[in-house]
Design goal:
single chain, Aspartate Aminotransferase, domain 1, Aspartate Aminotransferase, domain 2, three-stranded antiparallel beta sheet, 38% helix, binds pyridoxal-5'-phosphate, pyridoxal phosphate
């Protein structure tokens, strides 16, 4: 007998990418971390926030993260009432489901995309409905009027890396009776984003993360832009001190250094495009990527075989056992040297 709620007792829980304990001895290309350090200004801001002898850490952080919110609002051209920061964009995804979908109500998303949406929906006791993809990367059988309470559209898609065109996202927004969350975790590596749709459609919410493009996965910072009514709801639900002092300082400094973002994102995109071309040269099928990873399939379409061979060479990539994805690998983009090393291993593995 269990005292737990039935859905919690029965759910499997999310399994993050493998985190080896001896991190330094691996080439880690499995969780889409950024190979470059964050902006030096971010590091300075964090150290300044710690204060002499750590004195500032005695005090609670600003519960509303006002400075960081204003920095984001100014950068993206919204009033601060349209912006919220959080402890990773995962916190926002969680609270969005809590805000929009009650027990037994429907949460929708595209499969394959980010499977954490399902875990969050299960915790809430919500129903899950997934939609597949067509050959040309559109949502298969999406209804003229989708009645689910909340729908997640990951663009660029993870783990496949393609981005939906803006006109298509807009069409989906118009077809959703409930909220449309555009999960833009990788959008800084892409050509287009959906921020203008937040202004034009009441039901559109954009979420972002500082984990990938801003090299701050270790700080846990996410961002959402939405109508003030939605932001107020998210503010009611969240823990009051959800963003610590160091995260708030880091967020503000990261947003302020757009030149550094452009530099590192530019490098990663150039490496990604070279790596993709080299993979095709050795017979891999590579989906054109708008993110900081590629989804690539070896000629024999046996992703597991190549995963294991890379693993034995201490190179970690991501393999999904899902039948839709098992033929390929998701490989995060590191530095040029790291991708050369990976290519060398792949040539050897054959
Ligand atoms: C990495 C990722 C997130 C989570 O970002 P955090 O800010 O690190 O919580 C959300 N959505 C997608 C699609 C991601 O890949």
């Amino acid at each position: 007998m269990s005292l737990l709620r039935k859905n919690i007792a029965e759910m499997a829980g999310y399994v993050p990418g493998f985190q080896p304990e001896d991190e330094a001895s691996w080439l880690k290309l499995n969780t889409n971390e950024n190979p470059y350090p964050p902006s030096p200004k971010v590091v300075e801001a964090i150290l300044a926030e710690v204060g002499a002898g750590g004195g500032n850490l005695r005090k609670y952080p600003d519960a509303a993260s006002r400075l960081a919110r204003r920095a984001a609002a100014d950068l993206y051209g919204f009033d601060p009432s349209w912006v919220i920061l959080a402890n990773g964009s995962d916190e926002l995804l969680n609270n969005l489901i809590r805000a929009f979908a009650g027990e037994g109500e429907e949460v929708g998303y595209v499969h394959p995309s980010y499977s954490y949406y399902a875990t969050l929906a299960e915790i809430q006791g919500a129903r899950i409905r997934t939609f597949g993809l067509t050959e040309d990367f559109r949502i298969a059988d999406f209804p003229e009027r989708y009645e689910g309470k909340i729908f997640f559209l990951t663009t660029p898609n993870a783990p496949l890396g393609f981005a939906f065109p803006l006109a298509y996202i807009e069409e989906i927004a118009g077809r959703c009776a409930g909220a449309l969350v555009v999960d833009e975790a990788y959008v800084d590596f892409a050509e287009v984003n959906a921020l203008e749709l937040v202004k034009r459609y009441e039901n559109v919410i954009v979420t972002r993360t500082f984990s990938k493009s801003y090299s701050l996965a270790g700080m846990r910072i996410g961002l959402a832009i939405a109508r003030p009514q939605v932001i107020s709801a998210l503010d009611k639900i969240r823990d009051h001190y959800h963003l610590d002092r160091l995260a708030q300082a880091a967020a503000g400094a990261a947003l302020a250094d757009q030149a550094y973002l452009a530099l590192t994102v530019g490098r990663i995109r150039a490496t990604r495009d070279r790596f993709s071309a080299e993979l095709r040269n050795i017979g891999y099928q590579v989906i054109p990527s708008s993110a900081n990873f590629v989804f690539a399939s070896p000629p024999d379409r046996n992703g597991r075989r190549v995963y294991d061979a890379l693993f034995s060479r201490k190179i970690l990539v991501r393999h999904f056992s899902d039948p839709l994805l098992a033929h390929g690998l998701r490989i995060s983009i590191g530095t040029d040297e790291e991708m050369e090393q990976t290519l060398g291993a792949l040539r050897e593995i054959g």
